[in-house]
Write a structure and sequence with these properties.
The protein is an alpha/beta fold. It has a single domain, classed as Alpha-Beta Barrel (TIM Barrel), CATH 3.20.20.210. It has 14 helices and 9 strands. The structure holds coproporphyrinogen III. The site of coproporphyrinogen III (CP3) has 22 residues, from strand 3.
Amino acid sequence: MSTPEQAAPSSASLLVRAATGHPGPYPPVWFMRQAGRSLPEYRALRANQAMLDACRDPGLITEITLQPVRRHHVDAAIFFSDIVVPLVAIGLGIDIVPGTGPVIDRRFESEADLDRLRELTPDDVPYITEAVKALVGELGGTPLIGFAGAPFTLASYLVEGGPSKDHARTKALMHGRPVLWGSLLNRLAVITRAFLQVQIDAGVAAIQLFDSWAGALSRADYERFVLPHSRSVLEPLAATGVPRIHFGVGTGELLASMRAAGADVVGVDWRVPLDEAARRLGPGAVVQGNLDPAILFAPWGVVEAEVRRVVEQGRAASGHIFNLGHGVPPETDPDVLTRIVELVHSLS
Ligand code: CP3
């Protein structure tokens, strides 16, 4: 099977071509959290249903995933789900609390908790397979991006019991009980790889590994405690030929290490300009990003200038996928996103 570096059929989508270092006339554009609360049609569908129930309903997954494609004409769909879905599927007690995020009923504390992290099989997530297949049919030529949470970011939720600003318990476990930490991240890597493989087998065109909170770590700690596990997720997937995007927030110091973990594309937040990110990543790198989500609330003239700057700086890389530096804020005016897509498409 061909590797992403070799593959660039002219029939491939703009997203896959950019991801494999064969850019088209303009950067493909999609937005993290494009399916979500910024859309009134999303809020209407979700009004009477808990987040995790929606994530297990193939009809709802399909409809919510399609909403931003119809509205904004983005160049990729992102599968509607959540990073905790595979953990819920193997039986962990997790809720997604509106305005807070994932909350765990029992924190991960000791060896005994490892037994709860059993392997995930395709039979645990039939709704994922069903929804991916339906979407691939509905989307036609628009590529579908599958995703999963990276071992470190998932571990942070399990160890902290919920969202954390300082990741103090997580870092204490990592440094204080490195063997237990290694076992925890091994288990999470096996689950994550299996969850991505289910999506790839069902037909996604690309995958994104979200290590959203990895930017909390020094480069030395990232390389020692995290990188080997993210690599064990990403490297085996190279053989599938499906491009792998690796993203985190505040990861300016980690970009080269995140690429080394086995990524075809590295996501960059707004703190590092894309030309500087390309320099840090080294020759042949493909970047994704990196408009500051806060700019979405500025007057259009400011948004336009910033979009043009991001596209211009992205030309320093071997490929560029236009995105925000993090997710769409819920209060965003969706018309601004539609205008950004139109603008990027006009910048050939
Ligand atoms: O459009 C898309 O990007 C696809 C859907 C998607 C969701 N979660 C839907 C969602 C994706 C890719 C995720 C990933 C995810 N989930 C991450 C990594 C991305 C990132 O933001 O860094 C993380 C850290 C989570 C954990 C999580 N789930 C958080 C922090 C929240 C927000 C809590 C809140 O209410 O503010 C969630 C819930 C969630 N996941 C929502 C959506 C649309 C909002 C819940 C709702 O609509 O009720």
